[in-house]
Amino acid sequence: MRRVRILTVCGSGTVSSSMIANKLKDTLGEKGYKVETTEVNPGGVKSALSTGSYDFIAYTSPIHGEFDIPAINAVGFLTGFGEEEFIDEVLNLLEESE
Q1: pLDDT digits over 50-88, tens only?
Q2: Is the separation of the CB atoms in 11 and 61 below 8 Å?
Q3: How many C-beta atoms lie closer than 10 Å to residue 16's C-beta?
Q4: Engineering a disulfide at 57: which of 15, 41, 71, 96 sits with its beta carbon 3.0 to 4.6 angstroms away?
C-alpha cells in the first residue's frame, strides 16, 4: 500500500478541508493508497509545507504563492460537480510520481 500525504486547504482550515480529507481517504483507500492528511487554512499553507512533506495540495479556497508540489482545485470534489475529473487528476498525478 503506497502512502500519500495531502495538504487540504479551506477558508477556516476545518470543515471543508476535513470533508475533502475524509473523501480522499475513502476514495484513494479503495484504490490501494494509505492517505494521511493535514487540514489548514490558506494562511497555514507555507508553515505546513515548511514542517512536513506532502505529495500535493487539495484546496477549496484560493491559495497564493509558488509551491514545490502540485496544487489541485478540489471544489468539484466537494460539491460533486467535477468529482470524477478531480479524482482523475489526482490519480494521474500519483501515477506520474511513482
Answers
A1: 999 999 999 999 999 999 999 999 999 999 999 999 999
A2: yes
A3: 20
A4: 71
SS3 label, residue 81: coil
How far is residue 1 CA from its own chain's centroid?
18
Q: Beta strands 33-40 and 71-73: pairing type? A: unpaired
**Domains of the chain as residue ranges with CATH:** 2-96 (3.40.50.2300)
**Amino acid found at 63:** I
| Beta bridge partner(s), residue 38 | 7
Number of H helices, E strands in the chain: 4, 4
Answer for the pair 60, 20: CB distance below 8 angstroms, yes or no: yes
**Residue 80 identity:** G
Q: Which of 87, 75, 82 is nearest to 10 (CA)?
A: 75
**pLDDT attached to residue 92:** 97
- What is the rounded distance in angstroms from the CA atom of residue 61 to the CA atom of residue 4? 22
